[in-house]
Structure formats: structure tokens, C-alpha cells
Amino acid sequence: MESKLEKRYGLITAIAMVIGIVIGSGVFFKAEKVLTATGGNLTLGILAWVIGGIIMISCAYTFAVMATKYQYVNGVVDYAEATLGKKYAYYVGWFMALIYYPTLTSVLAWVSARYTCVLLGFSITGGECMTIAGLYLIASFALNSLSPILAGKFQVSTTIIKLIPLALMAVIGTVVGVGNGMIAYNFTTVVKEVNTSNALFTAVVATAFAYEGWIIATSINAELKDAKKNLPLALVGGTFVIMIIYILYYVGLAGAVTNKVMMAGGEAGAKLAFQTVFSSVGGSLLFVFVIISCLGTLNGLMLGCTRGIYSLAARNIGPKPDVFKQVDNVTNMPTNSSVFGLLLCGIWLLYFYGANLTKPWFGFFSFDSSELPIVTIYALYIPIFVMMMKKEKDLNSFKRFIAPIISLAGCVFMIIAACFSHKMEVVAYLIVFAVVMIFGAAFSKEKIAE
Prior knowledge:
Elements: H1 11-22, H2 26-37, H3 42-69, H4 76-84, H5 86-120, H6 127-146, H7 148-161, H8 163-180, H9 182-188, H10 196-211, H11 227-254, H12 259-265, H13 267-306, H14 308-313, H15 321-324, H16 335-357, H17 372-391, H18 397-422, H19 424-441
């Protein structure tokens, strides 16, 4: 008898799950870049968070409509297959396995190590930081491979912990900043004059990293009561709350230290902000919570990374399906896929260091692997939205046309913003992307039947 997932989640629980899935290390990591990109212009920075949030909300709603249409479809690969067929889904899955998951996982290992080094007083660009990043990668891999149950419990615990510094800084930092005039000063003082349009594009692309993850939340549709009504509400409501939390945290930081100090100090500036508001001991403790939050996000990404090539092998496509779809009888982990995922993470971590943290090793082929893969995901959404408008004739006008068109506009904006922000780096990235996808095509021939 086929078992079915129980409809056990209500709207409030679903909203909480969306918030827990999306909120992670990105806001800690990118708040500094948004501020720096806008020259310390808080109003422009908040506008960037709003635009990035609106793009996230609109895309989340459109995918929510698809999730309720394809009741048991989970993940962007399956949405690609439902709308455009197996071949397009294969290439999306190949990109996710070889670029998307390992690049973001490696960056998160470095971010976690970076904050650890700030706490311990080590250099954030030296050998200590990269050594800790490598150890974090291996530890996360080991946790997921040897004890998936413990990894799951760790994920739940960090979901709770990561909200603490955000909420406290958002509320108390803002109250303190209003009281001592720091927020008023930061809102009226621009540290550096910048080109407004270029600054806004750069800042919006930076927010994409913090907002990423909402697509995973569509997977709860099969367990949600009255999913056709509640999933769109949960995704829109949850993503809207996330945008508000991020903006309030951004303002809270402005209530603790000047924009100039924050821009000059980076992670050290964030630590100083926490210590200014919550005292030296309290600030350091909350900074530990920030590190735990980063490790929680790393754990979640490693979970996806270890299953990247397995998701293709399970469909009997990609390289050596019989090898990569093997699952350990004890841990229920795809062992070979996990090892391959860790190898890719190590390669991309080395690339990130050589391209972004030292004198570029790769010359023209150096690009920011923390942002451009995310923009690629938005580009891959475009054909899905177009086919949704073409195929889903039973939907009303808003769901079939208006919502997807708004989402399409957001995706196009994100692509244009990336081109203005990263300029020739986009060309370098596209060349690398093309090589990886051509390599993937070699494994797709005569294996996919539409």
C-alpha cells in the first residue's frame, strides 16, 4: 500500500518553517557589503533590501502556485521537469550539483571561519581562516554522513539560535540608536558618494545571498492543511516577515556604531556593534550565536551538496548512476555522492580563496562565487515561468499571467543588476558555467527520453 504524507501543518507553523529555512548567515555576511556598496547611505541600503525582498516574495508566490498545482513535486529540478521536461531538469540538476551547492557551501564554510577568526583575534584572510574553513567543511560532511539524525537535530537547534542575535539587535539596537541619536546621525550622514544606480544594483545582488533558500520551503506542500490556500499565504507571509527582520537588523546595527566604523571594520564592526549594545561579555556571547547560525546554514547546504549528484543518479542519468545512487544501509546516506560533493566543496573553497581573498590566481577567470551562482538560479527560473503561463490554462489571470510576469521582471532585474555589479566577472563566470554544462551534456546523451 502506498503511504501518503499526513496533512499536519497549519498556516502559522508553515510560516514559521519558511522563516526558519530562509534565515541564515546571509544577513550577517551581506549587511556589511550592502552598506559598503551604497557608500554608507542607509536609505539606499534599505531600498536594496526591499527590492531583493520583493523579488523573493513574488517568485515564492509563483512557485507556491506551481507547488499546489503539482501537489507532490519538490525542488526546482522537479518544477523544471514538470514545465519543460526531463532534459531541462537534467541541466538544472547538473548545475545545482556541480556549481550551486558546492560554491555556496564552500563560501559558508569560509564565512563561519571568518567570524570565528574575528572572535579569536585571527586574520580573516590568512592561513588560520582557511584552515578553520576546511575543518568546518569536513566536520559538516562527517556529521551529515555518519549521523544524519544528529545533523537534523543540530539543524533544528541552530534554527532557534540564529533568530536570537537578529531579534535582539533589531529591537534593542534600534531602541538604543533612537535614544542616543546614532540612527538619526547614520541616516543623515553618507560616508562616501557613489553612483546611485550602480550602488543599488550591487547591493540588491548582495541581498540575494541572504534571501536564498525560499524555494526549499515549497517542499512542505504535501504535509500542509488546505495547501492550495495556505502554501501561498505561508510563502508570501513568511518571506515578507524575513524581509522585515533583515531590514530591522540592518537598522539595529546603525543604532550601535557609525556607518563609517561598520564599513571599515566588516565582521569586526559587527562584533563591536553587539558589544556596544550588549556589553563586552554579552556581545561576545551573541557573536558566538552568529557563528552557530552560520554553521547551521553550512550544515543545511552540506545536506543538499552531499545529495547533489545522487539526485541525478536516482533518475538513472548523469555520470555513473549505478555508483552515485548507492545508499548506505546503516546511515541511509548516498555515500559516493557525499564524497563527491565534499570534493567539489574543497575545489570551490580553493577557488574562492584564489579568486577573492588573495592576489587573483586565475586572472580573468576570477569571480565572486557567493553571488553569481544565485543569479544563475533566477535566470533558470525564467523558462519555467514562461512555460507556466503557456501551459496552465486552468489558472485564473492573476496566477497564470500577472504573478509570473512580476516574477519574470524580478529575475530580469537580478540579471541586469549582476551585470552592472560584477561587469567582466560575469563573462568569466559564464565561460566557466558553459564549460561545466558542456561537460554535463556528455553524460546526458542517449540517457534522457522526453
